[in-house]
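quick one, two chains, predict together pls
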Amino acid sequence: MHVGLIHHVGYVVADLDAEIPAYRDVLGMEVGVREVMPDQGVEAVMLGSGPSYVELIAPVTEDTGVARFLAKKGPGMHHVAFVVPHLESTLRELADEGVELIDTVPRRGLGGHMVAFLHPRSTGGVLTELVEDH
Amino acid sequence: MHVGLIHHVGYVVADLDAEIPAYRDVLGMEVGVREVMPDQGVEAVMLGSGPSYVELIAPVTEDTGVARFLAKKGPGMHHVAFVVPHLESTLRELADEGVELIDTVPRRGLGGHMVAFLHPRSTGGVLTELVEDH
């Protein structure tokens, strides 16, 4: 695998509406797709007009990884997502190399992209996401 | 200003040589320019073949912002850098809008790029860098 483009950086925040203006007004980022993702207990919004984005993520329930991150570390950078052209074959290749995967098969991410997370133990301590984009 | 491409994400680490293999071998990133930047008390290396990169940063002296970051928060994501086409005029425009700048004029960054940092107070709590690239 060779990653190239950073698709987005994910920031955990307490309140999406309170944080959107800084990105929209200071960095000139368009406010894009916004969704509650019940299986992860978060609401997220994608900011920017591409090719790279900022994804703001806020917990909507208490018992999730993102809620624990916010309680422990406060708001800030949470993960980095790189584009790969073929996610399923990339995950197989990484698994064969002994890389620790959080998602062994692609799942649906914000805006309908297929995504998968790699475990920070395999990626220098930084939570790393792969996003399929052809 | 409208930011688009994420030029790099900066990760603070304790030891560059210990962390490079994860990025080179797992994410397939080329090991690029590496420099000690004495004025900032850090050594840094750029990883990747573009258009986006990971910049690993390790302190080489004790009394720097990066050394304090590492002591307080441990290794992890430190800043996000976006490409802008004209940095000097962008900084003037941001200052006119009341955005808090760490660097009011461009300075030399890793590999000779001209860069400037915006204060996290103006950018949703995340240290944000602008990199000039035409």
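The first helix of chain B runs from residue 16 to 26.
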